[in-house]
Design goal:
Strand content of chain A: 5-15%
Strand content of chain B: 15-25%
Helix content of chain A: 55-70%
Structural class of chain B: alpha/beta
Largest interface: A-B, 31 and 31 residues
Number of helices of chain B: 10
Radius of gyration of chain B: 19 Å
Largest sheet of chain B: 6 strands, mixed
Oligomer: heterodimer
Bound molecules: adenosine-5'-triphosphate, magnesium ion
Order of helices and strands of chain A: HHEHEHEEHHHHHHHHH
Strand order of the largest sheet of chain A: 2-1-3-4
Shape of chain A: elongated
Largest sheet of chain A: 4 strands, mixed
Number of helices of chain A: 13
Distance between the termini of chain B: 32 Å
Radius of gyration of chain A: 28 Å
Strand order of the largest sheet of chain B: 6-7-8-3-9-10
Order of helices and strands of chain B: EEEHEEHEHHHEHEHEEHHH
Amino acid sequence: MKQRRFSWRRFSAIVKKEVIQVLRDPVSLRLAIIMPVFMMLLFGYALSTEVDHITTAVYDQGRNEDSRALVERFTASGYFKISYYSDSEKEVKDLIQAGRVKAGLIILPGYSPGADALSSQALLIIDGSDPTTARTALSSGLLLAQAEARDAFEQKQEKSGVYYAINLEPMVAHVWYNPDLKNTNFTIPGLVGLITQSITVMLTAFSLVREREKGTIEQLIVTPIRPAELILGKLIPYVVIGYAGFLFALFLCIEWFGIIPAGNIALLIGLGLIFVICSLMIGMLISTFAKSQAMAMMLLMLVILPSVLLSGFIFPREAMPDIVKAVGYILPLTYFLNIIRGVVLKGVGMEFLWLDVVLLSALTVVLALAAIFRFRKTLD
Amino acid sequence: MNNAIVVKNLTKKFGTLTAVDRINFSVPRGCVYGFLGPNGSGKSTTIRMLCGIIRPTAGSATIMGIDVLKEPEKVKQSIGYMSQKFGLYDDMTVKENLEFYAEIYGLSPAERKKRRDEIIGMAGLEGKERCLARTLSGGFKQRLALGCAFVHAPGLIILDEPTAGLDPVSRRAFWQIVRTLAEGGTTVFVTTHYMDEAEGCDTTCFIFNGRIMAQAPPEELIRKEKLKTLEDVFIKYVEMDQGTPEANSRKRWLEILGFRRRNGGGR
Ligand SMILES: Nc1ncnc2c1ncn2[C@@H]1O[C@H](COP(=O)(O)OP(=O)(O)OP(=O)(O)O)[C@@H](O)[C@H]1O
Ligand SMILES: [Mg+2]
């Protein structure tokens, strides 16, 4: 007669014990709540510093009202800071080469934004060595020039009373979802995911290892406890803590950073629970491998670093080679980034997210089984 | 089945080190069995194999007629184990520890409450129910550990050096509880370095370098070896195994073996 059955009584004993221990450890309890808040604020600001005040040299050959208006528009946008007024094209190029400025704005003689000339009348030179800055400079510069042209055109129409049907923008760049192209809208929701995952993984990673180091595991192994009861029982209190951390981070994302989700927030909160449980399972799995807290810490790094680099948090996954991309599939964050960005930025619902939800749930189950299977009731 | 434990050719190797080397012994039911041997002789390793904490390299063991290797989980319900290192949750109270183990062993809420109060009375832990295990003195800690190991009233309790580091009064108090359990029919398998405690056992077994040197009631061993005390017997066995009794002074052995001879204030 084998005791193969899951016992709710033993499971509840583990849950109670873990709750008592967690409540008696106010430091780690507080840390689990304070950390997300602290990290959200710290990294939120670090990552959300929009590229602005790009140092720019201006060589204005137009020297008319219109050209001054364009320069003024560039300055007023906040993206550009005019640090040099140059007298030659060469000087502008030298300044860029020397790294004194990141961009150069060269306005040609006779510049007139409302003119129907299709040839460019202004040239924006960008130092591309820092792609992020370059991208911002390029997109904002183009948008600004277009806006200037449109305004001037409309003014002219009003004055003359004649309507020209001239297409001022032969190629229109439409920017969806994030019309201001603001980095924050992209990074902060991602940060909610990254922070939640990092903290929850940490919560459980140490739970079994601590028992191992303290020697309490030996006493536990001698009881009829089953791996599933132990692993799942240990999980419960951390689900509450991890979920609270997630809600705090999400709250800051909305209230502090002012990123109002375009989609259904209840859906996001619901899916966050699966995400938290999945992350906790990774911690549990680490716990079954690690012999000491130091080793658990190292294994944690093996999860956290790929989470930052491979989940799509920073680098777009589309551009990754398949093998590297595959590594991302074992991280809950990969799926949750799609979910949270989908809901917050695009406002989409389950009809677009279902695949990520299914995969995230499947990953949770696989990780849980792996942890239960890995946990041996022996010490050698 | 008259034996609580039957061990056959049990062996454990850690790499090249053979910690336990083909040992054989059996422990009759209801007996207090003293498992003796110097540091590193393989006592804890044997016990951990019996409890299913580590797997033997070879050999077999049955506990209460159940094969430890084949049905480790079934064995666990019928043994209580006290590890050499304090293994309870020191951030939980006396009561919480007892209730936790009671529930883990599947006792119903009513049984748990009853059993908890019984154990607290038996182990003399009254008034300490709400103390964190961490704050208990050594003696009380060990009594609590014994209580937790006995909470499901197993037929066999295995105690690994339960009195190491305790003062004589605490040791006596501890042994009084052990005797009560034994009188109630529980088999006790215990290791100790205190020869006065060993002399109080029904049967003793000497293990050295992973091999069993002798197995008999203490009085019989003393008589057989024509020595005065069990301690002399112990030392004789160790020297015999070393092969050069003259070369090593008795005093030096005492140091190596870490005997706490002074502490053993009779029984
Ligand atoms: N997990 C392990 N890995 C490697 N060697 C081990 C391990 N556990 C025990 N040993 C070795 O096995 C031998 C027997 O150890 P054991 O703990 O069984 O001795 P003991 O009789 O309990 O000693 P003590 O009186 O100090 O408790 C020792 O040499 C010890 O170093
Ligand atoms: Mg030992």
